[in-house]
Fold this sequence. Notes:
- This protein is α/β, with parallel strands linked by helices and 298 residues long.
- 35% of the residues lie in helices and 20% in strands.
- The chain has helices at residues 28-39, 52-55, 94-105, 131-134, 144-147, 161-174, 199-207, 227-232, 244-249, 261-289, 292-295, and strands at residues 9-13, 43-46, 68-70, 75-78, 83-87, 110-114, 119-121, 139-141, 154-158, 181-186, 189-193, 216-220, 235-239, 252-254.
- Strands 8-7-6-9-11-10 form a 6-stranded mixed beta sheet, covered by helices on one side.
- Helix 9 (244-249) links the parallel strand 13 (235-239) and strand 14 (252-254).
- It is elongated, with a radius of gyration of 22 Å.
Amino acid sequence: MSEKRYDDILLISDLDGTLIPRHEAIADENLAALNAFTAAGGAFAAATGRTPEAALPYLDGITVNAPSIFFNGAMLKDLTEDRVLEVRTLDGDLWRTFAARVLYQFPRACVEVYTEGRCHIISPEENDDPRLTDEFYNVNHTELRAVEDETWLKFFICDAPINLKFVERLAAELGMDKCSTSFYSEANYLEFVPPGTSKGAMAEVLRTMPQYAGRRIIACGDYENDVELLRMADIGIAPEDAADAAKEAADRIAPPCRTPLIPWILREVRKIKRSAALQRFFLFCQFRTQPYWVRFDV
């Protein structure tokens, strides 16, 4: 296969802090490289903690030709067909109890409940995280009792890091670890998703789909919520300015996020392919120079 063809690769990338510098738009170089990648047979998927609606504006103009991961692994959705393929949910009344305790004990926190279509903020509006107005979230300010009967995909708390440590203690006290997976997606963002849920776990679902059989997975991420994705990939890549946990899980370290990532990845892929081609050539030459009784020794 030509080193400029990518029919054997599935590229999965986090958005914020990886493909896109925080609070900015995607670089033209990344956009052009991604479209060149997919035009040459590559499969591309996003993997983000965002809702589909909050991610789409950042993906405008990009060919996303593989199902993408949302809510940090709670949803797999085919954007080209606007079809949800798989969803994982937070089940049980204990979540309503936990949410009520968080609201009572942490009155300055921004507390968010994510359902399939919306971000519901159940804390006072003055506590809102500023990102919500700038980053295309479909926000519904409401009360806990209004969403108690909804199907929850993710529970999210934004507060000072020291307060979130106490939220973790509360979660342990109530046994939330037995019915969820939790992690930080920023120092002040603590998230709870269904048990066994992660970007990496949903990427494994993607790997099993027949249309991606035999493709090597290259995954990119920058924070704790990307660790499982980086570990499951054939090649995991973290930017130089990523969190330590992400860099420890990665196989390769890319330049900082503000340096366009995708052109760098494609150059690395071409190097790998050239190296593999050279290895095959050298093995062939070595084989040809062996005496025939060594080559065909039985």
